[in-house]
């Protein structure tokens, strides 16, 4: 059997500009495939349409170009609705889906704020309710997988997710479903992304297994924590947008954060020189697995 071409992806949500935290995910996923002469796909995660900020998709593409990223394909999730609908129909046919009309408020009252969904509607057999989400029945036994950066992982369904939503009550396909379908359909062989998403892996692998699609290798790198607010560097923490003129400094800092130890003289050099060094010297094994760092 011919082994598939190494294929990675970066999947930003068009909810604002890219910042240093996004650059870590873009860089790690990019370098890991480039070093294996693989392909890197850009996927615009715009399925959650109410959160989309107009113009953000174009700005993200321009920012990536200014930082020297080159992608082999651009996918826009909102143009792939028929694929998600087909996956949902396949799951429905398997009898693993059910309707749920619990509001977040209701199950938080039952379980407290941190509790996961308690599978309350699993046996209620609701049919065609107006305001219901669609959930998938999760396995009875814990899920084990090997993370390329974090090592052996065990995911306990009742305490870490419960039966999760595949289609929201507002009719929008849920992130886990669309990510799992896209990764299988696009032949993604490795997903390198931030440790804030590590809890998404078991649900996405489980969906791929149900849909009999291929499943990539997953690796979760540490994420940058804002030293003042102590929260993840993100649009919500008002992380500044990546500016083209800071490309060398920011890329150098990201490589340092990922423990690649770029030589100091490259800090004042050209962007192409820094990329050249990074593609040759990249090592996933060097990344410090701690889940977050200042
Ligand atoms: N769109 C997600 C984010 O911006 C990334 C999803 C993924 O990599 O699976 O955090």
Describe the structure.
- It is globular, with a radius of gyration of 20 Å.
- The chain has 2 domains: 7-79 and 180-293, Rossmann fold, CATH 3.40.50.620; 82-144 and 152-175, 3-Layer(aba) Sandwich (Rossmann fold), CATH 3.40.50.620.
- It contains 9 helices and 12 strands.
- Strands 1-2-3 form a 3-stranded parallel β-sheet, with helices on one face.
- The longest helix has 15 residues, at 20-34.
- The protein is 32% helix and 17% strand.
- The protein has 294 residues and is α/β, with parallel strands linked by helices.
- The chain has helices at 20-34, 56-66, 81-94, 104-111, 157-160, 175-185, 201-210, 247-257, 271-281, and strands at residues 7-10, 39-44, 73-76, 97-100, 133-136, 143-147, 151-155, 164-167, 190-194, 217-221, 223-224, 292-293.
- Bound molecules: glutamic acid (GLU).
| Overall 3D shape | globular
First CA to last CA: what distance? 44 Å
**β-sheet strand percentage:** 15-25%
Determine Rg (CA atoms, Å): 20 Å
- In total, the number of strands is 12
Strand order of the largest sheet: 1-2-3
CATH H-level superfamily title of the largest domain? HUPs
Task: Decide which structural class fits the backbone.
Answer: alpha/beta
CATH architecture assignment of the largest domain: 3-Layer(aba) Sandwich
CATH topology of the largest domain: Rossmann fold
> Into how many domains do the coordinates divide?
2
Bound molecules: glutamic acid
CATH class of the largest domain: Alpha Beta
Unreliable segments (pLDDT under 50, ≥5 consecutive)? Answer: none
Task: Give the helix level as a range of percent.
Answer: 25-40%
The average pLDDT is: 94
Q: Counting H and I runs of at least 4 residues, what is the number of helices?
A: 9
Largest sheet: 3 strands, parallel
